[in-house]
């Protein structure tokens, strides 16, 4: 039973000894804005040397995988390959490719989102509304700084067709900036589209388990020997529980320890991490030299 | 059409006989507008005649609408233009109760005594701003707001207006990510209220189509700010209390006529009015049946006493 225990000492060493692989969220775990969390690059290096796999699972739908890989490099993380990166943009492209006819008909996907997301969709062979005519068969809601009432209405018009899919890259309600201010997340835009259309979106990102399915298509993962490390209880930790992983909350991001403890007291155990650390650098001490 | 009406005896077709009996015991009829009297700019067939006949029989009429994009005067003018009559001149608009007007009254109550002139950040129309200003609340933010600069860091650095005590969310065709961001920033200031004019998810237009309603924008703000809004419009009581105060209503002798189970009918039930559902708008008899058969008690409430295909069905009961 998850009890939100501090992970250190013998428990840390034992846990890491039997761990084969670690799934990491990115924002608030590896970095905050343009600053790597101190010790994070070293942790990844040590995991690699210890023969443990590291994979990265991000709800951020602004970035294509290529942009995400560039960010790793820019912030001092070495040796991270594109194959290790699972963004909600990439997985949304995969989901739509699976559910739409192949080859993708022209103009099939109406996207509320930016260039990073669009690029990822095109790379998967999807064809976007607005670039060519064609009946829209799917509305994809992502992080969209240019979201407007007009776009909301257009999405609704497409969704009047009950066969038109409604997909959201994630439902994060807001995102923190490094100084404590927040920006509205895809979740707030998805709420608007769901409310107008009367439909529930299929959600790609955490806490939906879809990105785990994407991962296990490419990598053998034994949930009993895999950790999920994240900073947001309602996405990362819930995702980890749903996938049967051991969950670790790091306190360098969104969620606070008292919030986890409040969920524990309220019996909402799928939002309670098994363990917590102040930062992922604390995990280094658990790895054998 | 076969009669609906569950075992509980509700949602009975309002035949001419039943209508006569009902109207004998009623002084006031409150009408929703969109989907009841008109769709877009087209009056429902027979609807103007029904209202004329009601007025001729001495019934008081009130129009209770969640629409926040026109002023009271503009609404009264539309009623006239589409043949629904109503007092002209200085009395124009007195029958019309819009959430914008009631929201302004509510905010004046809540912001009074703050020691500074009241100010609100408004995601809404000029009409909404005008109602606020009419009760002494200054508005900022109406209209388009372009994103400044390159990224979140830039637009979050933009200065805020001082002294904003509330964020008001109404129907806003200029709604954008930038405005949503600004609204959240105001809401993060201590004591800032969040008020939504209504939660309608859609506005019906001609030809069966619709556009997104205010409810969508309220939900977006609630989600981004992680707060619940106080809602003025149907089915919240506030708008009815506003009408009742101005009209001096007796709920037992008042009928609510609407097209939406989750706003009009729920409001009527909550306030102890008799309720008539018209099938010319959002809700259908299947929706009623679903609510009657549901295990959920809040759904069970959303069942009208009577239904009509359209309000033109009232006319036979009003002919001598």
Could you explain the architecture of this structure?
The complex is a heterodimer of chains A (289) and B (320). Chain A is of the alpha/beta class and 289 residues long. Chain A contains 10 helices and 15 strands. In chain A, the strands form 4 sheets. A 7-stranded parallel sheet of chain A has the order 1-15-14-13-2-5-6, with helices on both faces. In chain A, β8, α6 (149-159) and β9 form a beta-alpha-beta unit. In chain A, α4 packs across α5 (115-123) and α6 (149-159) packs across α7. Chain B is α/β, with parallel strands linked by helices and 320 residues long. Chain B has 2 domains: 12-66 and 235-318, HAD superfamily/HAD-like (Rossmann fold), CATH 3.40.50; 100-231, HAD superfamily/HAD-like (Rossmann fold, 3-Layer(aba) Sandwich). Helices cover 36% and strands 18% of the residues of chain B. Chain B contains 13 helices and 16 strands. In chain B, the strands form 4 sheets. In chain B, strands 1-16-15-14-2-5-6 form a 7-stranded parallel sheet, with helices on both faces. In chain B, strands 8-7-9-10-13 form a 5-stranded parallel sheet, with helices on both faces. Chain B has a two-stranded antiparallel sheet with strand order 3-4. In chain B, α4 packs across α5 (126-134) and α7 (177-187) packs across α8. The longest helix of chain B has 13 residues, at 99-111. Chain B is elongated and about 65 Å long. The chains are: A alpha/beta (289), B alpha/beta (320). Chain A binds chain B through residues 144-150, 152-153, 156-157, 160, 173-174, 177, 181-185, 187-189, 191-196, 198, and chain B through 147, 152-153, 156, 172-178, 180-181, 184-185, 188, 201-202, 209-213, 215-217, 219-226. Chain A: Mg(2+) binds at residues 25, 27, 231. Chain A: It is an enzyme of class 3 (hydrolase). Chain A: It catalyses: O-phospho-L-seryl-[protein] + H2O = L-seryl-[protein] + phosphate; pyridoxal 5'-phosphate + H2O = pyridoxal + phosphate; pyridoxine 5'-phosphate + H2O = pyridoxine + phosphate; pyridoxamine + phosphate = pyridoxamine 5'-phosphate + H2O. Chain A: Belongs to the HAD-like hydrolase superfamily.
